[in-house]
Structure prediction request, 99 residues.
Amino acid sequence: MVAALFFAVLGSIFEQRREGAKTRDKLDENTEALRELAGRTTILEASHQHLLQDFAEHRRLTDKNHAEVTGSLADARERLARIEGHMGIGIPPPNATEG
Prediction:
């Protein structure tokens, strides 16, 4: 009876050791996967920062171009008004009635 109890305890110890080894292997796999994901996250964060910088540069360039176009349009309107005034032509005011 003592021998049976001894073998049962020995079998339990062996089973626990085997399950512990499996658990350790799974933890090692998960740790490796976590390291890989951390590396990918770092790369994605760097890409995100690069895109933010590119977007800021694009925004600055767009605002500059918009200001230039707006200024150019104002100059063109002023020149057109002078030309119309010199030639004596122009669009009548919107409230003018024919009579």
Observations:
- The two ends are 128 Å apart (CA to CA).
- The chain is about 85% helix and 0% strand.
- The mean pLDDT is 91.
